[in-house]
Amino acid sequence: MDQPSKTRSTILFLLRKTLCGIPFFLVYIYYEYSRAVIESYDKTVTYQFLISFEEKIFHKPLTIIFLSHRNIIADYTSIVMYSLHPAYLVLYALVLLLLSSDGREYARFTLEFTLASAIGVTVFYLIPVAPPWIAIPGVTRLPNPLVMAVSAILHRQYYDPNPYAALPSLHVGLTVVFVASIYRLTESRRALYLGAIFSGLMAFSVLYTGNHYLIDVISGYLVGLFSVWSIGRLYEKYGDRLNKVSDKCSGSTGRVSVKVDKPVLKVTTML
Q1: What confidence tier does 201 reach under pLDDT thresholds 50, 70, 90?
Q2: Total count of domains within the chain
Q3: What is the pLDDT of residue 30?
Q4: Is the pTM of this model over 0.70?
Q5: What is the span of the domain harbouring residue 225?
Q6: Residue 149 is part of a domain; what is its CATH number?
Q7: Cα–Cα distance list, 194 to 105, 106, 116, 201 (Å)
Q8: Which of 2, 135, 229, 251 has the highest Cβ tally under 10 A?
Q9: 3-class DSSP state for residue 32?
Q10: What are the tens digits of pLDDT across the range 55-75?
Q11: In the chain, helix, strand, coil percent, each to 5?
């Protein structure tokens, strides 16, 4: 292939991938924007029933229990895990989009991400919840390095667009979407176990840092599981049509190849 043909092929590849990437990033931007808009609505903020639930089980709010048993390992583990969201999801979407030769898993991941985000935003509006670091006296949440980095880059303090978006915890719910996608690609139990550990650490981190209650975490898992299950049912019924659309996003840089071996996707590395 001569140089002009290579250049034209590269431009077409980048254009196709850019167009295919628009839906995921529009959903992400809409999610962040919606959180900020929701805070401006005049809604009653609640939190007492979430605290009461924890008190019935543990006799104290979990945040207070963690506050009295803090140690440096748990501190740094929680800070790192909490600050990974949502960067790891955006990075993973880019990997699927640019390095996968098949666009089907990227499309399915985007649909699951969209559904989970839509459910989260809806509940944020219907049931605004003050997180432990706001509702419980004496509790302060641990710092978020990602927020601190953004503030430093922008030369101004970056604030949470809606601190009352606690129920459900999408930090936790979207780990289910992420792990499900990894498992579909690899069909590896080891990947599934590692994903479960990752999800568990995320759940621990949102509780430990004072950002969520136990009910937030439970509901987050339910949202993630429901999103994966619902899109799975959608693919069972309309899989052929959906795959025809997502196949338009196929093609990669050549580093990773995703082979279709119905009904699962397998990943092989090109050396």
Answers
A1: very high
A2: 1
A3: 80
A4: yes
A5: 12-269
A6: 1.20.144
A7: 20, 21, 22, 11
A8: 135
A9: helix
A10: 999 999 999 999 888 899 998
A11: 70, 5, 25
